[in-house]
Amino acid sequence: MTRTQVGIVGAGPAGLLLSHLLHREGIASVVVESRSRGQVEETIRAGVLEQGTADLLDAAGVGERMGREGLRHDGILLRFDGTTRRIDFPGLTGGKRVTVYAQHEVLKDLIQARLAAGGPVVFEAADVALAGTGGDAPRIVFRARDAVEELQCDFVAGCDGTHGIVREAAPAGALHRYDRSYPFAWYGILVEAPASSDELLYALHERGFALASTRSPSVQRMYLQVDPADRVEDWSDDRTWSELRARLATRDGWEPKEGRIFHKAIFAMRSVVTEPMQFGHVFLAGDAAHVVPPTGAKGLNLAVADARLLALALAAFYRRGERSLLDRYSQLALRRVWKATRFSWWMTSMLHRFPGEDAFRHRIQVAELDYVTTSRAASTSLAENYVGLPFEA
Questions:
Q1: Is residue 73 flagged as an active site residue?
Q2: pLDDT over threshold 70, residue 393
Q3: The predicted structure's pLDDT at residue 367
Q4: pLDDT > 90 in the chain, percent
Q5: 21 inside domain
Q6: Which of these is catalytic: 73, 96, 205, 352?
Q7: Is residue 36 part of a domain?
Q8: Which of 182, 187, 223, 386 does the annotation list as catalytic?
Q9: Total domains present in the chain
């Protein structure tokens, strides 16, 4: 049996950033991940980083490549009824903006930082399980290189995603799960083409939602609202471009820039919150505790906020013996989680066509977008939430 101060299950953004922040505080940790390093680094995810997230990565010494390659965006475009309106982030939030930098690029930077510092990251761990969660010395049991390993910890952080094992190790009745499934999915493509828009373009259309985003000057990310029963095979390139042209159309004949589609995926839309985000000496962070629809660009940012808060709480415990922040971790984290869940739900409801809705509902959505983009108070509310609310503690 080996020992560490903090055992971390999951090498996603929450787990890797937590390990990195703890290292900077002189706190030992081990990250245990079931996937290979290649799988972690190659899983394609979007990435819109809040101002606070980008600032934290910079301050933690892992933002150098993000600063070179990330795309700074000063606003978003909202398209409805054939017109386009812009939300000016810096003008509404005192200079804040967002950075477009894919999640898997953030993970590459964090993995490189952890390995360069000699931080233990166990990839391809099999049969991962928790033991002793009812006491003050929980253990992570796993198989690596055909040998069974047992890691004794002061604390365990469950950063292992929606289908992870840590949350399931909680005693019966200890956690409550709030779940909302949306009656549509997103169909996303990656395309070799110049940017169709300098900023993210969100579109409400009678046929459904569409989004034109960017990954780099030569690679774009686009999305369509589709039926959750749809398969990628149902969407030929011709059908994809036809639908994007229709939903993104303007009165002046604007069309998206087209190119070779080299990746397609369909994924469900859900809102999930687990309360509390801790039991005993075990803490949940990132998707292990909550999931939001991507409309509000909050998933990665919530994971970063959780990791930051948990690192502060653990540092207070190991430096000064103070448990108050650890004891309040869930309470403080959930304040931000529920606000982000509300914002993601609101953006999703405002921009998507729900099954069975009539023309009245669509006109209400148009009226809401018209109000949001012409009222400074409403525009400020959207901008403040999009660029990121202040961190807790």
A1: yes
A2: no
A3: 97
A4: 93
A5: yes
A6: 73
A7: yes
A8: 386
A9: 2
